[in-house]
Structure formats: C-alpha cells, structure tokens
Design a protein that fits this description.
The chain is of the alpha+beta class. The protein is about 45% helix and about 20% strand. Its main location: cytoplasm.
C-alpha cells in the first residue's frame, strides 16, 4: 500500500467516525472507544489535510508559473512572488510528509505511562556507587525541569554518599516515552576523589526504566507471592525504626524479588513493592514481545538490554558520548544537571523514528 493510499484510508476512517459520533447512535461503551479513536486520529487527519492542501497549492503555483513563462505580458513581480511561494512550499512539503509518516507509526502503548526508575552501582566499588547516586540526582533534576513528579521509593546507601541501588517513581506527561532509551550500562571515566595518584578509573552503573504498570496491565495472584517482613535498617546497619515495617516480596513463578523499607508503614511499603514488582513483570512481558518483533530488525536504538553499554561520561575531557547514535556533547556539567539531557533524548527519539520509518519503506 502506497503512502497516499494509507493517507486516504486514515481520512476515510476519520470521516466515518465523525459521522457515527455526530449521529449519536452508538452504545455508551462503544461511544467511549470510538471517541478515543477519533481523538487519536484528529491530529493525524489535520496533518494529512495540511499536506494535501500544500500539494494542491504547489501544483496550482507550478501551473501558474508555467503559464507565465510563455506569456510576454505577464507581470514580472507577480511571477517572482509565485516562484518564491512555490520555493517555500516545495521545501515545506517533505517536512509535512515526514510529520504525517511519523504520526502513522505504530504507537508504543507504554509511551504515555509513568515510569519506575532503577539505578544500581555496577563495577567499580565505591566510585560506581557514587556515580549511581549522581545519575539518580541527574534524573531527579531532569524530572524537575520537565515538571514531572519524582518520588524516591527505596534507596540503599553506602554511607559515603553513594548508592548501591535506588528506585524512584516518576509521574507526568509522556515520562516513559522520553526516558525509555536510558536503560542500559552508563560508564564513567574520571579520577576518583579517593585516588591519591590521580589516575583515571572506569566504573559503571546500570539504569533500568520500566513503564509503570496498572493492575489492568498485569494481574498478580496472591498465591504466587511470598511476603517477608523485617526491621528497616539504614546505612551501616543502623536501625531506622523499631518495628518490622520493611517488606520483601518474592514472585515465585519468576523469582523476582522486590524490597521496600522507606516508609514506616508496612502497608505502604507493601503497596510500593507491589508497584515495582508489577512494573518489572510488565517490562518482562514487553521485552519478550519486543524480542519477537525485533528478531529481523536491523536498525534500532539499542535493545534496552541492561547489559548493553549505552553511554560514557568522561569527566577529564568534559564529554558525554552516546554509543548507539555516536553523539558526543562537550557539556558534561549541563548533562549531569539535567539541562542538556534533552539533547541526547531528542536525538535518540529521532533515530528511533528514522529506523521505524525505514522499516515502513
């Protein structure tokens, strides 16, 4: 099916939905479903209409210019204006075509979801834990700049300002769509504060970004869970409180284990742990489906595999390099402050869109 045929198919469905909804003859359940489909199609239909209008205007202008060419009495100023307008339109039409093509790409159903962020220290001992804490703060700042809510859920500190692991719930508009390419191994190269010789060390932290799953996305059977309660402990084993409020949930079918001890209430810790568990199970389901879909896919922005090295932060040279798209920014301070992270995110999204458009070919 050609692109124009796809456009016509979308417009026909859009018109059909508009007429059906205007007639008001649908059942209440169907009305909600059709209204959502109509709302989703509206920006696509508007983009197609804008493209068709641009093409029609360009064709009219081309005809007018052609006619003026053979007319000695044609107004030179009018001809110049028509040529200028034609030039502007011919530059704009490919942009409109790309906009429509992108809008027709299959949507990731998780893009509009909130996200669970998990950051873990990898190889590198104390330096890796310090870097994990800095990454966690980078995402906290980035969330603040985008107006998202960042709630730290569980943080396991090392006692010197580092994090062995930390989990956060990030809520807001399009959170997962912008953060999903952050999953993987983040490598840091720098001279550790504890290194007397001034040698550059390489260490790493692992980031996982999971779409927050609702109960309707993943049903968890109580009989598949083993729930243990224990006393919360802080860094160095210091007692946080004297009640058995910390919760550890083991999902028996998969062996996944989630612990939560930030809250003083056992009930709240259990609810938070279940939220993380549900999101991990949902992520596993998505990964399994993606593996099938990507089996023959040549171009993609990483696999989201947690073992895949995706980015290097080189502090002595002040650069951040994303290895998936070979993009290097010499503004490490702004990236770590969350301010320049959008430059990386936008480039990753653009690369993903380009790869998927190539597949549509």
């Amino acid at each position: 099916m050609s692109l124009d045929e796809k456009f016509d198919k979308v417009m026909a469905r859009y018109d059909e939905l508009r007429d059906t909804l205007a007639a008001g003859l649908t059942e209440s359940g169907d009305f909600a479903r059709l209204s959502k489909e109509y709302a989703d199609l509206t920006p696509i239909a508007e983009a197609i209409a804008e493209l068709k209008k641009g093409r029609a205007e360009a064709a009219d202008l081309a005809e007018m210019i052609s006619a003026m060419m053979g007319d000695a009495s044609a107004d030179p100023e009018m001809k110049a204006m028509a040529e200028e307008e034609f030039h502007v339109l011919t530059k704009r039409i490919p942009e409109l075509e790309r906009k429509v093509q992108i809008s027709l790409l299959p949507k990731d159903e998780a893009d509009e979801k909130n996200a669970i962020l998990e950051v873990r220290a990898g190889t590198g001992g104390d330096e890796a834990a310090l870097f994990a804490a800095e990454l966690f703060e980078m995402y906290r700042r980035y969330a603040g700049l985008r107006g998202w809510r960042f709630e730290a859920m569980d943080v396991s500190e090392t006692g010197i300002g580092g994090y062995k692991e930390a989990t956060a719930n990030i809520t807001g508009r399009g959170v997962f769509a912008r953060l999903k390419f952050e999953s993987g191994v983040h490598r840091v190269q720098r001279v550790p504060a504890t290194e007397a010789q001034g040698r550059i060390h390489t260490s790493a932290a692992t980031v996982a970004v999971l779409p927050e799953a609702e109960e309707v996305d993943i049903h968890i059977d109580e009989k598949d869970l083993r729930i243990d309660v224990f006393r919360s402990s802080g860094p160095g084993g210091q007692s946080v409180n004297t009640t058995d409020s910390a919760v550890r949930i083991t999902h028996l079918p998969t062996g996944l284990v989630v612990s939560q001890q930030d809250e003083k209430s056992q009930h709240k810790n259990k609810a938070k742990a279940l939220k993380v568990l549900r999101s991990r199970l949902y992520d596993m389901e998505r990964a399994a489906k993606d593996a099938v879909r990507a089996a023959d896919r040549k171009n993609q922005v990483g696999s989201g595999d947690r073992s895949e090295r995706i980015r290097t932060y080189n502090f002595p040279q002040g650069r951040v390099t994303d290895h998936r798209i070979n993009l290097t920014l010499y503004k490490i301070d702004k990236v770590m402050a969350g301010e320049a992270l959008d430059e990386l995110v936008d480039a990753l999204i653009a690369e993903d869109e380009a790869a998927r458009l190539a597949e549509l070919g």
